[in-house]
């Protein structure tokens, strides 16, 4: 899976492939140092991601292997919201927000 | 899904893979700022897209997950016509045309 | 699908994946202006394409979605011979040959 | 399969696609000389890989063809820990660690 | 399929995805002029390829469409040993070896 950051949303009233009612977010890919690669993609969200969240993106046929995207015409799906990324001993990303237990 | 803009069409009288009767459009990929990347692709259209439309492109096996492209030899399918793209608070694209309700 | 131009052929006597008897052509990818990208690929031909033909290439699992390539180990298949490409009002490619009706 | 080196881990408490309980590692791709390409990917681990291990990465739908990742929304899976890489007569990589028999 | 040249081998004692007993070769991709692109990949061999052989590589789910790789976690498989490549009238590659009839 690639890492990305949610930066926006797409609205498409005319669409196909069982996409009705699904949220389409714009995500920019991050490199291993979490720098913005300036390459983005439109994704179906399955985990309630919001703007600024660092997310896990699953592509190809695996993008359809979630309860929400089964039989949906998606080639890139958000399958996780990242809480922590460690490289060696170093925590390079820690998500901090109110609703975490 | 990637974002693209319809710029043309392809006619192929001799074709395989249940493509008979399906419209093949030429679409140029757009980056997140909606600039033309100068890379294009031929796609099966499932939503009645026209020239100039900003569209959602679905690739790989997911390109076949629509009613129209089931069992069709397509690796890139137009699955939505984009009405609105927001990055943060900013609307970077608004589709305006007569036939919208 | 990507656009390509047939430039040659590959002969492989020892092969696997139900490829026996199928023609393998070398195709160079074309960009939207039909310039040669100098990147090429070996493809199974399903439409009787010949050298110089501009063709539609279908990749990934969709490369197997034709009568000829069902269950064949191909990741890129020629699925159409292009007759006409229009960008806006402009015809950028017209195939002209004797055997067209 | 591509070659990579394990450099870290990702924790995501909110996730979809039957990923619960699976370890997600950060792997940087290596080129044929085993140099770090500075491009990384998040992968499901199926072989107990640890930091510093050189691993085999399997992508696309094949990433789901292991006992652990069947029906899991993964597009890149670690499917092997590399012990030895030979280019011609030359051993360019030999894994040496205590728990090898 | 892409063209490649076998340059080495990988040994991995700990592996998953029904890879036991299968030979994993290192292959460098060739461009259309058969120049080494310096990009390589680890592949399952299904045709008995040896070092120096020019081979056909099949990727994605099609990499599993051979008798040997059915249900195997491979995303790139060697599916043919190339004997001859012609571009136009010119033979740019002819394999010459003793065991050819």
How many strands, what sense, and barrel or not for the largest sheet of chain A?
Answer: 5 strands, mixed, barrel
Q: Quick one: CATH class of chain A? A: Mainly Beta
Topology, number of strands of chain A: 8
**Beta-strand fraction estimate of chain A:** over 45%
Number of domains of chain A: 1
Mean pLDDT over the full residue set of chain A: 92
User: What ranges of chain A have pLDDT less than 50 throughout 5 or more consecutive residues?
Assistant: none
Helical residue percent band of chain A: under 10%
As a whole number of angstroms, the C-alpha radius of gyration of chain A is: 14 Å
Task: Count helical runs of chain A.
Answer: 0
Can you name the CATH architecture of chain A? Beta Barrel
Order of helices and strands of chain A: EEEEEEEE
Distance between the termini of chain A: 26 Å
Write up this protein:
With 101 residues, chain A is an all-beta fold. Chain A has one domain (2-94): EutN/Ccml (OB fold (Dihydrolipoamide Acetyltransferase, E2P), Beta Barrel), CATH 2.40.50.220. Chain A contains no helices and 8 strands. In chain A, the strands form 2 sheets. Chain A has a 5-stranded mixed β-barrel with strand order 1-3-4-6-5. In chain A, strands 7-8 form a two-stranded antiparallel sheet. Chains in contact: A-B, A-D, B-C, C-E, D-E. The interface between A and B is medium-sized, with 34 and 32 residues. Strand 2 (14-15) of chain B pairs antiparallel with strand 6 (76-81) of chain C.
């Amino acid at each position: 899976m690639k890492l990305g950051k949610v930066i926006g949303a797409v609205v498409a009233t005319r669409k196909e492939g069982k996409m009705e009612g699904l949220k389409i977010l714009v995500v920019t890919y991050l490199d291993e140092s979490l720098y913005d690669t300036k390459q983005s993609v439109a994704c179906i969200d399955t985990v309630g991601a919001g703007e600024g969240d660092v997310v896990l993106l699953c592509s190809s046929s695996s993008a359809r292997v979630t309860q929400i995207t089964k039989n949906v015409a998606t080639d890139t799906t958000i399958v996780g919201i990242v809480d922590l990324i460690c490289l060696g001993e170093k925590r390079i990303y820690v998500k901090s927000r109110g609703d975490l237990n």
